[in-house]
Design goal:
The protein is α+β, with helices and mostly antiparallel strands. It has a single domain (3-91), classed as Roll (Chitinase A, domain 3), CATH 3.10.50. It has three helices and four strands; from the N terminus they run βααβαββ. A four-stranded antiparallel β-sheet has the order 2-1-4-3, with helices on both faces. Strand 3 (73-79) and strand 4 form a beta hairpin. It is globular. It starts with a strand and ends with a strand.
């Protein structure tokens, strides 16, 4: 069974996500930006989604978490909830 751990920031628009990605690319702290801007309840934990098993999240987000490089910022990724920036920090 695949397990991963990731953080994300969820915002309403691609423009917001692009602006946050620029801040992250310039070294701003992911956790602090998640706490300030994310629409997801995970923002209280710096965007941390905890342990993720396949089938738990919306497909576009899951596809990134289980297939893309660790420790990089991925996105913006569009889902029915908005636009996500995703940082994967563990996968088994």
């Amino acid at each position: 069974m695949s397990i991963a751990m990731a953080k994300h920031i969820l915002v309403r628009t691609k423009e917001e996500a692009d602006a946050l990605k620029t801040k992250l690319d310039h070294g701003e702290n992911f956790d602090l930006l998640a706490k300030k801007y994310s629409l997801c309840a995970s923002k209280k934990k710096g965007g941390d989604l905890g342990e993720i098993h396949k089938g738990q999240l919306v497909k576009p987000v899951e596809k990134i978490i289980f297939n893309q490089a660790l420790k990089k910022i991925h996105g913006p990724v569009k889902s029915k909830f908005g636009f996500h920036l995703i940082k994967i920090y563990y996968r088994d």
